[in-house]
Each structure stands twice: as structure tokens, then as C-alpha cells.
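From the methods appendix. Each design record in this collection lists the discretized structure first, followed by the designed amino acid sequence. Records were kept in a plain field format so they could be parsed without special tools. The example shown here is representative of the layout used throughout.

RECORD:
C-ALPHA CELLS (324 positions):
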């Protein structure tokens, strides 16, 4: 059951960091025990309000007489339950299962997404035959794609397959291709190489940092749309979190529909009196226009080369049709 706590900022507490203020208030005035890291996570996941408005920065300073409300969701079950959720299965045998994940589906349970995930669906479909290496919350999961990214994923149905596939991902011998629609006109092809790490202030974001891990993306232009957007194909040589999204945002070509890496200057850069309708379609696209199109790897037991393709989903196809 969700718990809700409300506190008024008093004069002696004004100007404190929000996470420290809530940490002290909760642990001094309630029977709840929450770590500061847990409180920071709640803030970043939009579970805290100031005067009835969501606030998501742990470092923001408190204001005298403001009312702060923190919503503490119920704890996540350690073991996800099987759920009868339809799966678009591309391939399956006794060792692996390859699925076409729809946009909007989370891969495994986590904060704010306790069920209706791909893991819940796989547990039901595979009836307990998934690899246990990923732990009870991530059985069978070898890699993942973002909630609002569609496309191909492979999962392991036993521990041996999990280890063999994980090794291929670690050695970057697996081939992965994505289709993306980005803002602006870009060159016909290119390579992006830079280091990527977690953003120091917004834990939902990644950023380019000299202290991060190397990310390499080869890309080529597929089609340009009215000099306002471009369809590109990206081949990943590494698999960093948000790799395509953060790299192209850093280059000034953030993905259509990407709410996390959105550039507030987009309107000034691309909107003009002749493209208002197209601009509105792009700016209102409800998710990042990113699709995992191709996946190839060696089968974990037969060593056979396996290749799979996934066509663009209807929402991206419908967006593209507006340019034709």
C-alpha cells in the first residue's frame, strides 16, 4: 500500500537540500525508515511534490512555508509473477526466444513498473524455463532496450545459453542495427565515438563524459524529410545505456519524440511558416522514434549464425508517410 507523508518547511529548515530535508523529516517524525539514496530515487522518479507541483531534483533548496508531499509506493515483489501478456515471437527453441518488443513495454520489473513487463510475459510463456543468471527479477534477460524503443530482443531459456550470449555481447561480436528519426539534416554516413556515463545530477539521463565508457555508433542516412528530419540506420559496436539517443543529442540531432534529451531550441531551429503541420507532427510524436531493426549472433548451442529482422512499427511508418 502506498504511503503519503506531508511536511511544512519551517524557518530553521529553509534553504536545505530537498533530499536532506525529507530524509530528516521522515526519519525523525514517522515510523518509516528511508535511506537518503532511496529518497533521492523517489524524487527523481517524480514521487515528490512541492505545493502540489512535481519536483524531481534532489539538490533543489527548500523554501520557507512550502508544503512538501512524498509518495512512497509499495515495495516491489522480489519475484515477478507470470502474466498472460501476448508476445510477438519471431523465433523460439529450447535454448533461446527472440521477440519483437512493442514500444511502451518495460523489459524487466523496476521502480514504477512492477508488472506488465516482458519478464512477466516470458515467465508465463516459457513456464519456468528461463535462465536464472539474471536473478529473480530479470530471468533470461541478456540485454534490453528502453521502454519506448520497439524492436528485437533475445532472451535465454537456460543458464548455458545465457552465458554464451552474454559473452558475445561483452565481446561486441553481436550485430545490432537500429532505425531512428532524428531532427535536422545530417551527412550520408559517419561514426560517433565518445565516452558515455551516468549524468551527475539527473540519474535518468546519460551524458558524454571523458570518465565514461567508450560508445561507438556507425550510422548512414536512409532518407531526408523536408530538411527538417532524417531517417538513419545505426549499427552499434558497443551497447551503452541510451547510446544512440545521447550521442545524436550531443551532436545536435536528438531523436524525434525523445522527452529526456529534448532540445528546447528545436522550435527556433526548425519551425518556419512553411512547415508548421510537419513540425507539429514531429514535436508531438509520443515516444523516441527508435526501433531495433536487426539482431544477429551465434546460436549458443549449435554455433549457427542466426539473423533476425523486424519491420518498422505502425506509429513510425505512419509518421514517415506524412513526408511522402
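DESIGN:
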Amino acid at each position: 500500500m502506498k504511503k503519503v507523508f506531508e511536511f511544512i518547511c519551517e524557518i530553521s529548515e529553509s534553504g536545505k537540500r530537498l533530499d536532506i530535508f525529507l530524509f530528516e523529516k521522515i526519519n525523525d517524525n514517522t515510523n518509516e525508515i528511508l535511506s537518503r539514496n532511496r529518497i533521492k530515487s523517489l524524487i527523481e522518479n517524480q514521487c515528490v511534490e512541492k505545493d502540489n507541483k512535481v519536483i524531481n531534483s534532489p539538490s533543489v533548496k527548500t523554501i520557507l512555508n512550502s508544503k512538501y508531499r512524498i509518495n512512497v509506493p509499495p515495495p516491489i515483489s522480489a519475484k515477478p509473477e507470470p502474466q498472460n501478456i501476448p508476445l510477438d515471437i519471431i523465433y523460439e527453441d529450447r535454448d533461446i526466444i527472440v521477440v519483437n518488443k512493442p514500444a511502451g513495454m518495460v523489459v524487466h520489473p523496476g521502480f514504477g513498473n512492477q508488472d506488465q513487463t516482458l519478464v512477466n510475459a516470458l515467465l508465463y510463456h516459457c513456464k519456468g524455463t528461463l535462465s536464472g543468471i539474471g536473478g529473480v527479477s530479470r530471468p533470461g534477460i541478456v540485454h534490453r532496450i528502453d521502454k519506448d524503443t520497439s524492436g528485437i530482443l533475445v532472451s535465454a531459456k537456460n543458464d548455458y545459453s545465457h552465458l554464451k550470449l552474454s559473452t558475445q555481447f561483452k565481446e561486441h561480436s553481436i550485430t545490432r542495427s537500429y532505425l531512428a528519426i532524428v531532427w535536422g539534416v545530417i551527412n550520408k554516413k559517419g561514426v560517433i565515438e565518445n565516452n558515455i556515463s551516468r549524468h551527475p545530477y539527473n540519474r535518468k539521463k546519460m551524458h558524454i563524459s571523458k570518465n565514461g565508457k567508450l560508445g561507438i555508433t556507425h550510422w548512414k542516412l536512409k532518407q531526408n524529410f523536408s530538411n527538417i528530419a532524417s531517417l538513419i540506420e545505426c549499427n552499434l559496436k558497443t551497447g551503452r545505456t541510451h547510446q544512440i539517443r545521447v550521442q545524436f543529442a550531443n551532436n545536435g540531432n536528438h531523436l524525434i519524440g525523445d522527452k529526456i534529451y529534448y532540445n528546447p531550441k528545436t522550435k527556433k531551429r526548425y519551425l518556419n511558416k512553411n512547415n508548421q503541420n510537419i513540425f507539429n507532427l514531429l514535436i508531438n510524436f509520443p515516444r523516441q522514434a527508435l526501433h531495433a531493426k536487426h539482431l544477429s549472433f551465434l546460436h549458443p548451442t549449435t554455433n549457427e549464425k542466426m539473423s533476425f529482422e523486424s519491420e518498422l512499427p505502425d506509429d513510425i511508418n505512419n509518421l514517415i508517410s506524412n513526408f511522402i
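APPENDIX NOTE: The helical segments are 18-29, 36-44, 118-126, 159-170, 243-250, 266-270, 276-283, 314-321.
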